[in-house]
Structure formats: structure tokens, C-alpha cells
């Protein structure tokens, strides 16, 4: 049962909206719809069109994908953000009430309106969406590690030193020539492709070019994260301890790939090691600079990071579901050889899923943040000046 929200009082109880001026909440109070759910009732269904996002007022809802619960959404938290911020997206999970629950929903159409009119409510929702998405990525990463039956969450100092020595070349080469320009790499990100030159220039100033030698350890699994990187030249290999003492190769990152972005949003330990596979250049941005850009450039940058993280999670979930399907098939009639092959294939899919969570090829991301007219492109963003 749904009824229009007749007051802004419920919004005042939402922690991440408490800093919004009351006059702003009142101005847009009638955009919200209050939804009451009974235990076992679905709010949304996996595969359905994303037409709204929700803020949980009370109760607890389970996030279910492929029939498996992958998380919970509780009072004061946002739901549906990974789909609602991107045009034409479908739900990647069902949302089911585990207890009696109340949710405030905002349609995608009205989310677009908030963005078009430059409301601070939109930016508050965007920031909370980033936090929620990072936490879901970490929960998914933990689930992958548990399914892979890793020996432990992170290597000890001794193991870190050993891994470094194993992967460091005997005569590490250094990059030759200056660092490639960062601006073309930023424009590979779908959200930033139509951005004004001054916004791209402003964002570029937040990054520092760093040369990397072959075999150089960029960061170690288990170390605290405080920066993200874009590969400007060369390759970076991503490794993780997932079977006892073995460090498995998860992915190889190349020019234009963004990695470590979740630590820009919320600090946490690195879940994999990144090591230079060949000499090249990185561009580094520190977490402390994530909120430094001006209102317009900053909002575009947060949208770009949200798109990258959402693409990582979507790809990881596809690989994870494939791994679970392969694992389930082992219970059928199989020869030992077939079962062994399926088991190894399942493990390799888990590695792929983990690799997707570590970084993304921004130019391949299919996600584009909604435009202000919902016309299917981002070039009419209210935060990008229209060119004559």
C-alpha cells in the first residue's frame, strides 16, 4: 500500500538528510511516497526496471540475487541506488521485507528533477549511494573469499615481504619519457566524456603522476587504503591470497583502468595486492582530495566513481552467480574428472569475480548517469554547460 508523503517529518529522521535545510526538504517533500511492507513481501524484483530508489524508515529488508540473500538494508539506509542513478537499468537484486517495514521512495523521474534543479538533496543521495555501494562491494568480496575458502583475510608482514620479492624483477626498468596526459583518460569515463574542459582540468589537478618500475608493489593486501589510481601507461597485476599460501592472479589492469576507488569513499583494508607488471605511469588521487572539487566538478566526479563502482559490482555478481551455478552442478551425476574440472572452473569464476571488484576498465563501463531530460545521454547534464 502506498500513500503520498504528507510531511517532511520522516525525512528529518534519516541520518544522511539531517544536514539538509528544512526549507529544502519541504520544497520537495511531496515527491516522496511512503510504502508499507509486510514480512515476506517484495519491494522490487530482480530483473525489473529500476523506476525508483528507497530510503528505509523502519524494519529490515533482505537483498536477494539468484535466490540467495547477499545483504540487508536497515533503517536509515538507502536501497536501489546502484540502478536508480543510471538510465534504463534493471534491478540486479530483489528486495524483500524480513520484518514489517516502511520505505520512502523517490521515482527516477523526480531524482532527475532534483539533479536538474541543483538540489542539495540530490548530492546527499549521491554521497549516500556511494557509501552503500562500497559496503555492498566489501560484503560481496567477503562472500567470494568465503566461497573460495581462503586461508585468511590478509597476508602477514612476512608474507607481504615474500610476495614483494617474488614479483620484483631482478633489474626493474623505469618508464621512459614523461607521464601521458591524464585528461584523455578522464574523458574515457562515460560520465565525464561530455564535461566542460575547465571541469576536467580541475579534476586533473587532484591527481599526482607517479612512475612505476616493473615489479614495484603499489599496495599490499591487508594494508590500509587511502588512495585510488588510474593506469596511464603499463600494466598492473592484481593478486590475492585465496587458497592458503597461494597468491592467485585476479586481473591485469591496463591503460585507463581505475582501481582502489572504494577507499576514496570509505577507508578500509586493501583486499588484494597490486604490483607493476611492466614499467609505466600511474595517476594517484588521495581520499582527502575526493571532496575537494567545486560543486559542479565534484558532483560529476562522484557520479563517475559511482558508475565505475556499480559496473564493478554488476560484473562481479555475474561471475559470482556463474561460480555458484558450477558449484551446484557438482551434486549431479559426474565422473571424478568432470567434477574436478567443474570445481576448478567454479574457482576460476570466483577469481574473476574478485578481480572485477578490484578495478574497472572505465571506458568499457556501460553505465551512464542520467541526464536532466532523460533523453538517453549525459551531454545535457545541468552540471555541464551547453555549447552554442
Tell me what the structure shows.
With 388 residues, this protein is α+β, with helices and mostly antiparallel strands. The chain has two domains: 2-117, Sandwich (Jelly Rolls); 151-295 and 352-363, Jelly Rolls. The chain is 35% helix and 25% strand. It contains eleven helices and 20 strands. The chain has helices at 9-12, 22-27, 81-84, 108-116, 120-147, 157-167, 183-186, 197-204, 262-265, 295-329, 336-358; strands spanning 2-4, 33-37, 42-44, 52-58, 60-65, 68-74, 78-79, 94-97, 101-107, 208-212, 217-219, 224-225, 227-233, 236-243, 246-253, 257-259, 268-269, 273-276, 280-286, 359-361. It has a five-stranded antiparallel sheet with strand order 1-2-9-4-7. It has a five-stranded antiparallel sheet with strand order 10-19-13-16-20. A hairpin with a 2-residue loop joins β14 (236-243) and β15. The longest helix is centred in the C-terminal third of the chain and has 35 residues, at 295-329. It is globular, with a radius of gyration of 22 Å. The model is unreliable at 1-6, 150-162, 167-171, 363-369 and 371-388 (pLDDT under 50).
Output the structural class: alpha+beta
> Remind me, CATH topology of the largest domain?
Jelly Rolls
Low-pLDDT segments, ≥5 res: 1-6, 150-162, 167-171, 363-369, 371-388
Largest sheet, strands/sense/barrel: 5 strands, antiparallel
In CATH terms, the superfamily of the largest domain is: Jelly Rolls
Give a short summary of the structure.
The chain has 388 residues and is of the alpha+beta class. 35% of the residues lie in helices and 25% in strands.
Amino acid at each position: 500500500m502506498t500513500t503520498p508523503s504528507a510531511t517532511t517529518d520522516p525525512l528529518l529522521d534519516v541520518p544522511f538528510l539531517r544536514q539538509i535545510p528544512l526549507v529544502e526538504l519541504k520544497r520537495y517533500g511531496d515527491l516522496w511516497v511512503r510504502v508499507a511492507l509486510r514480512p515476506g513481501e517484495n519491494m522490487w524484483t530482480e530483473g525489473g526496471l529500476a523506476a525508483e530508489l528507497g530510503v528505509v524508515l523502519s524494519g529490515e529488508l533482505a537483498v536477494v540475487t539468484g535466490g540467495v540473500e547477499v545483504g540487508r538494508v536497515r533503517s536509515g539506509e538507502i536501497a536501489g541506488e546502484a540502478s536508480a542513478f543510471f538510465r534504463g537499468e534493471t534491478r540486479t537484486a530483489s528486495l524483500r521485507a524480513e520484518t514489517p517495514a516502511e520505505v520512502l521512495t523517490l521515482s527516477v523521474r523526480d531524482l532527475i528533477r532534483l539533479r536538474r534543479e541543483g538540489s542539495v538533496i540530490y548530492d546527499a543521495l549521491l554521497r549516500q549511494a556511494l557509501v552503500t555501494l562500497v559496503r555492498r562491494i566489501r560484503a560481496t568480496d567477503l562472500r567470494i573469499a568465503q566461497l573460495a575458502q581462503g586461508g585468511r583475510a590478509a597476508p602477514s608482514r612476512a608474507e607481504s615481504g615474500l610476495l614483494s620479492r617474488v614479483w620484483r624483477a631482478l633489474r626493474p626498468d623505469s618508464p621512459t619519457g614523461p607521464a601521458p596526459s591524464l585528461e584523455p583518460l578522464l574523458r574515457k569515463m562515460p560520465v565525464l566524456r561530455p564535461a566542460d574542459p575547465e571541469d576536467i582540468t580541475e579534476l586533473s589537478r587532484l591527481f599526482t603522476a607517479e612512475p612505476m618500475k616493473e615489479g614495484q608493489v603499489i599496495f599490499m593486501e591487508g594494508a590500509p587504503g587511502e588512495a585510488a589510481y588510474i593506469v596511464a601507461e603499463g600494466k598492473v597485476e592484481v593478486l590475492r591470497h585465496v587458497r592458503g599460501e597461494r597468491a592467485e592472479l585476479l586481473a591485469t589492469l591496463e591503460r585507463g583502468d581505475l582501481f582502489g576507488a572504494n577507499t576514496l569513499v570509505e577507508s578500509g583494508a586493501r583486499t588484494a595486492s597490486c604490483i607493476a607488471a611492466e614499467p609505466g605511469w600511474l595517476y594517484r588521487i588521495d581520499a582527502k582530495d575526493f571532496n575537494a572539487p567545486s560543486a559542479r566538478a565534484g558532483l560529476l566526479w562522484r557520479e563517475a566513481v559511482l558508475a565505475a563502482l556499480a559496473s564493478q559490482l554488476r560484473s562481479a555478481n555475474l561471475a559470482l552467480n556463474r561460480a555458484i551455478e558450477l558449484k551446484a552442478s557438482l551434486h549431479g551425476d559426474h565422473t571424478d574428472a568432470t567434477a574436478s574440472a567443474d570445481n576448478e572452473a567454479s574457482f576460476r569464476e570466483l577469481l574473476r569475480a574478485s578481480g572485477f571488484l578490484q578495478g574497472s576498465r572505465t571506458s568499457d563501463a556501460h553505465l551512464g548517469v542520467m541526464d536532466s531530460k532523460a533523453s538517453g545521454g549525459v551531454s545535457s547534464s545541468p552540471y555541464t554547460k551547453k555549447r552554442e
